[in-house]
Design a protein that fits this description.
Polyamine Oxidase, Chain A, domain 2, 2 domains, alpha+beta, about 25% strand, globular, FAD/NAD(P)-binding domain, four-stranded parallel beta sheet
Length: about 425
């Protein structure tokens, strides 16, 4: 008799769970409450532009993700390793180029003398990279709990350098600019950024879940599904109760776990304001009432993101930073971001037009140190997703792998 499994939620962890269940001989029924697969990794086309739901990149340094995804088939192209750092000014902004010296030696050496920060801070970045590359990913989560800020200070980084570089970069990744995120998560992300590239698929971030879905051969998808999980083997689909051998919940069951929000503002511009395929960080984020953590031009990396005669500019604003300033509406965010950008690119922003202002209320989970203390023992029961492991594509995939391994093992013992 054919084994049947239900997976509720067609985000990245749910799709991977379907693939793993198929490999175990299950016929899978995938239920998604929205009108498309992908979860938070979705894209839409608007006026000839590809707009991702939030600013997304894929990290090729993630081991499991790199085994699973075919980046070449997705037509992925990489950002330059490093960043541009801007000090906004209404007349003449100052821009520094910080390049990874391990992968771009000449540019990296030149950047060390740009006076952005002391050579000691740059040396410490290199030493931290070397140290972390020698440690297994699983071992990174075995040290004691510490905030990222305290960790960076303990490594000798100056507060100004942390404020001007780490806060806008990792604040935009962790969606909190106080750097309260557990340092074990910082180590994991920093290491994987160092050993891989930040890449964008040709057809937008949606290509990632779509590639997974295209590999499924024995999964039936139902969109706009009105499904509730009764127990670990039973679901209610509308008025129908259905039994399965396995039910996997690939969604966050407790909304309060997903507490970090983000604003993303997409602009159309006649040309890119950046030189080089870098992300641009706001060095003044912590020293003024700034909103913008970082800015990117996806169409510089992937021309398919914009019409041939235009550029797509994407700005990231951490929601809690906006809330602290009393900015909670799309109009208020748009007006404040445009005003701030006029200090980044004087005389250029008037030619830009807003394509979309996005607000993602539940973008990332908020984890305590205790969560990471127990990370090695988490199986997720029958629940997977980054809210059950850690907040990354890799974390979402690992969570699905652990759940399916655990469910299949327990099922074989029944």
């Amino acid at each position: 008799m054919t084994k049947k499994a239900a997976v509720v939620g067609a985000g990245i962890s749910g799709l991977y769970a379907c693939w793993l269940l198929e490999k175990q001989g299950y016929s899978v029924y995938l239920y998604e409450k929205s009108d498309a697969i992908g979860g938070r990794m979705r894209s839409e086309k608007k006026s000839g532009f590809i707009l991702d739901r939030g600013f997304h990149v894929l990290q090729t340094g993630y081991p499991l993700a790199s085994e699973l995804f075919d980046y070449e088939a997705m037509g992925c192209q990489a950002f330059e390793p490093g960043a541009l750092i801007i000090k906004p000014h209404e007349k003449k902004p100052k821009i520094w180029q910080f390049t990874d010296p391990f992968r771009r030696p000449m540019k990296g050496i030149f950047g060390a003398f740009s006076l952005f920060t002391s050579p000691l801070n740059l040396l410490r970045v290199g030493l931290l990279r070397i140290k972390l590359m020698r440690i297994q990913d699983s071992e990174l989560f075995q040290k004691e709990s510490q905030t990222t800020l305290d960790y960076l200070l303990s490594k000798g980084f100056s507060q100004p350098f942390i404020d001007r570089f780490f806060s806008p970069l990792f604040g935009g990744i962790f969606l909190e600019t106080e750097l309260r995120t557990d340092s074990r998560m910082f180590d994991f992300v920093f290491k994987n950024m160092s050993r891989g590239n930040m890449v964008l698929p040709k057809d937008g971030i949606m290509a990632c879940p779509q590639q997974l879905f295209n590999r499924l051969t024995n999964t039936t998808l139902k969109l706009n599904a009105n499904v509730s999980c009764i127990d670990d083997k039973t679901i209610r689909d509308g008025n129908n109760v259905q039994d399965f051998d396995i039910v996997v919940r690939a969604f966050a069951p407790v909304k309060s776990k997903l507490t970090r929000g983000v604003w993303t503002i997409h602009f159309a511009a006649p040309k890119s304001p950046l030189r080089g395929n870098y992300i641009m960080l706001n060095s003044s984020l912590k020293s003024s009432n700034s909103l913008i953590s970082h800015l990117a031009v996806p169409s510089d990396i992937q021309p398919s993101y914009a019409p041939s005669d235009q550029s797509l500019i994407t700005v990231t604003v951490v929601a809690e930073d906006a809330t602290k300033q009393g900015l909670t509406s799309k109009q208020a965010i748009e007006e404040s971001v445009i005003k701030e950008l006029s200090l980044w690119f004087p005389g250029q922003v008037d030619e830009w037009s807003v394509l979309e202002v996005q607000y993602i209320e539940s973008a990332l989970p908020e984890f305590s140190g205790e969560h990471f203390d127990n990370l090695a023992n988490l199986t997720g029961d029958n629940i997977c997703g980054d809210s059950t492991y850690h907040a990354s594509v890799e974390g979402a995939l690992i969570s699905a792998q652990r759940v399916i391994d655990n469910l299949v093992k327990n099922g074989s013992q029944d």
